[in-house]
Amino acid sequence: MARTKTSYVCQACGSTSTQWQGRCESCGEWNTIVEEIVDSGVGAGPKSAMAGGRPIELLPLSGETETAARVESGIAELDRVTGGGFVKGSAVLVGGDPGIGKSTLLLQAAAALADRGRRIVYVSGEEAVAQVRLRAQRLGLGDKPVLLASETNVEIILATLQNGPAPDLVIIDSIQTLWTDRVESAPGTVTQVRTSAQALTRFAKKSGAAVVLVGHVTKDGQIAGPRVVEHMVDAVLYFEGDSSHTFRILRGVKNRYGATDEIGVFEMSTLGLREVANPSALFLDQRDKDAAGSAVFAGMEGTRPVLCEIQALVAPSPLGTPRRAVVGWDSSRLSMVLAVLETRCGVRIGANDIYLNVAGGLKINEPAADLAVAAALISSLMGSPLPSSNVYFGEISLAGGVRPVAHAAMRLREAQKLGFQGAVTGRLGKGDVPSGIVVGEYAELAELIGKIAARAQRQAAE
Question: How much is the pTM?
Fold first, then answer.
């Protein structure tokens, strides 16, 4: 008979210890260690394992391969992020802030798939069936043939899914509400989340159904629970957005069957989430072309070029320690750009308060935005607007040079499609410049700063 043991598990990082302590030694968080009773598995020793095991066939690396069968939702932005649809037999983890639209998006995807004759099961652990129906009616999806259930016990959910035809897609909303009889812990604890996710992932592999798990996020924006859950699933999607804006971004950070760092852009409306086919036009819709400190960055999100506005404000600081406020970009990257401007280019900017914002709430992660940030900072410092017909992209080195970045031709074509006539970047290779757009290539950041300063002097003289 298997014995049980008590372990102390950190609810922030999932590490275990032999005794309770106020501070977790792994992640440094306070008061996050909780006593949990788990199945130790004692009784299945080496002899039992050898008796119950069976040899499997070893295959060579070379051989025929099959393309993974996918379940396309018909929502183009969702299919883009997943790599062409949900792969059969895969487990997908979707995380996001409360109220950001995770349940709305998945309910719309379930309704679209059900219209195509797919068998879709939506299991809600946070809402009753009547509440899910009310949301479906509000979205105009009340007549869609989606199968609903309200249950939190994993064993009951698996027994229900195995009773009858195999579903094509199973949506679990959310993984933090589930509990299993295998462990004696409260729902939402690390042990329950890990064990429940493992059971549902095993069901997906055996049945061939795609399983989507909705996960809560912490105050840092990470999916709550142990990181091992992200390693267990095949894809991890983050649903991002700002309550002050109507659009939402679905970002893929892990995908075993497709490209990562892809984004899908949606706009929240009274009838649910609406796809945005051209996000660049949305981010630049309300741009002030004549304002100093504004630069248009031609970025890449996965395989999609996206143009957005970077706003900078440089103001005299009344404090001994100047302020640095960054929204939508890496604050350490801003510190590096400021150090290069001070040391390599002779720009006295460090004593000022600096505010940097990526307009529209978009988050930028690539270093190609260095040149756009530097141009916006110099423009604000000198009080001179940049040419409204130019886009900026390029990586800045610590030596003050401007490095070229990948996918320059795609960035330039996107800018040209939106009416931009020029671009400022590093040295490009042959064939990277499409016809019809003027590209200013700079090897050193100081050259660009000198040109912006000369333009500011001409404007002041006029």
Answer: 0.80
